[in-house]
Amino acid sequence: TYSPEIGESTDCNYDLALLKWACGALLTAVDRLKIDDPLTAKWQDIVTRLVPYPTDENGYRVGADMTSGAHRHFSHLMMIYPLYSVNRDQPDTLPLAMKSTEHWLNGAIAEKQAAGFTYAVGATFYAAFGRGDDALTTLKALFVRRERIGRIFPNTMYAESGQNIETPLAAAQSLNDMLIQSWGGVIRVFPAMPSRWADAAFHDMRAEGAFEVSAVRKGGLTQWLRVKSLAGEPCIVEWPGDAPQVHGTQATPLGKDRYRLDLQASEEAILAIKGVKTFTI
Predict the structure, then answer these.
(1) For the chain, which end, N or C, has fewer CB atoms within 10 Å of the first or last residue's CB respectively?
(2) For the segment 110-134, what is each residue's pLDDT rounded down to a tens digit?
């Protein structure tokens, strides 16, 4: 099949990642909704027996018969982002994911193949790994005008071969991904904060599962986070460090700094460090 902007390949990682994710999403849906679908066995068979992602000494290849050269596009790394099928919760695959990302990003930059969105998405990759300083450094590199990449204007628009909007939108998303991430059924607040961002706050950002999340960070420490459920779906939040004070519901510890919140639709809960009593932004 075809890896966007790169070329055709056997066992193309772009399509393997999408197929495996899609079948996994379908299996999750039929289980959550208690649906007896006749294709369930086929989806499970694909997830179980699908060929592994082709790799080499540089990490994930484009496909079995094509290595990953210097190119602006990250289509062969879809399993890392935006699908998060390979992620930092998987210690066995994390080194390969980071090696693959740095080979792609550094190669594209070194060979002057990087476009504006290469830097923006590169920042999100680092955010996915929890590497906030690298994410910020990569994002700021977008604003340094170079021969290959275009120019960002004061109104946040961007021009390369012509005006386009994908690069500023990707850059905005990378900022969001430093502040909040939700994948794998877990809401992560301030998951990739640069060391120089000791203070930060956001209000009513959306997380998977139909949640509105607000949070405040001061002196490098999360002070509190508020989660409102819009649909009554299962809710797991990540709260690093000491056990928080919980207001509005019960919080069940799950290990790995994670807590399950039992929220019905329109209910909300607040997690806070001890001593914090004001929850405004």
Answers:
(1) C
(2) 988 888 899 999 999 999 999 999 9
